[in-house]
Amino acid sequence: MPSLVDALNDSSKKPAIVEDCLALIESEVKNKNFIIKGGYKTVSGIKPGFIRNVVSDLLPEFAKALEPMHQEAVAGGKDVVAHFSGNAGKAADAMLSITDKKAERSTNGVVKKAYGSLRGTAKSNVEAAIPGLALSTDLMVGFCGETEADHQDTLSLMREVQFDSAFMFRYSDRGITYAARKLSDDVDHETKGRRLQEVIDLQELHTRASHQRKVGARERVLISGLSRRNDRMLGRTSSFHSVLLPLDAGRPGDTVEVEITASTGHSLIA
Questions:
Q1: Cα 182 → chain centroid
Q2: Which of 132, 148, 166 is where one domain is finished?
Q3: Under the phi-then-psi rule, with left for phi > 0, alpha for psi from -120 to 50, and beta for the rest, what region is 244?
Q4: What is the model's pLDDT at position 202?
């Protein structure tokens, strides 16, 4: 199984991870006191993109500091996100050890002053944010040369990580790709279908468990529009969980804070 460092340094995924982290930070700051908001505004104003660059630079170091906890979860067959949430203090200490060193070495007086004003409550703020983390991935079955053993490895990885959500699909030729031009599409249609269904069935179990853990929590939700049945509003949390809300909860584009009261296999309910 890849380490957190490898996963977060994947150039195809890192930009999206950075954006998710920024959304989580923004969501957390909005609910804090004026000291936190003021410090964040000061640091954000140093130069355009400063916070984004800091997050991007710190991700590999955070991953390295958190890797022992990641391995603990994998070795014990535990849900990775639940393990981090259950040990939020330990995770916060690991990440703050990195930022403390960065702040100490900084030659920017504004950064040092802002960090100093925020550090006293930093651990409790990081602990509060950790349950907001979520793991998502893309899963493809039936790629050229995929064996049954390869497929079982995919299922094993899913059981170890227990992703909150996943985009799942079967391989098909795309004419401009290397695979279409150089490799043989040698996994038959029926096998691809079976493997995809096994992946979907397993992921649904993990998504249901992820949703159930959210019941009773308060979440900020961006409303996107009406649900398929037009009887509820539909929105997304900062961790991209789908939420069904009352019709009078707001309009598309509104961000509202709600309590999650129930869940289904596909959505949270407020």
A1: 34
A2: 132
A3: beta
A4: 95
Q: What is the mean pLDDT of the chain?
A: 82
- Tens-place pLDDT, residues 59-118: 888 888 888 888 888 788 777 777 777 777 888 888 888 888 877 777 777 666 766 766
Residues 223 and 204 in one domain: no
Side chain identity, residue 245: L
Measured distance CA(173)–CA(94) in Å, rounded: 44
Bridge-partner residues for 233, per DSSP? 226, 245
**Amino acid letter for position 7:** A
C-alpha closest to that of 220 among 81, 41, 44, 30? 30
Whether pLDDT at 50 is above 80 = no
Mean pLDDT of 158-174: 88
Specify the pLDDT at position 154: 92
- Structural domain span for residue 264: 215-269
CB 265 within 8 Å of CB 211: yes
Total domains in the fold of the chain = 3
Task: Report the Cα–Cα distance between both ends of the chain, in Å, rounded.
Answer: 36
C-beta of residue 119 within 8 angstroms of C-beta of residue 147? no
Q: What is the CATH number of the domain that holds 248?
A: 2.40.50
**DSSP character for 133?**
-
Query: Which amino acid does the sequence have at 64?
Result: K
- For residue 130, the model assigns a pLDDT of 65
- Spatial distance between the Cα atoms of 29 and 22, rounded to a whole number of angstroms: 10
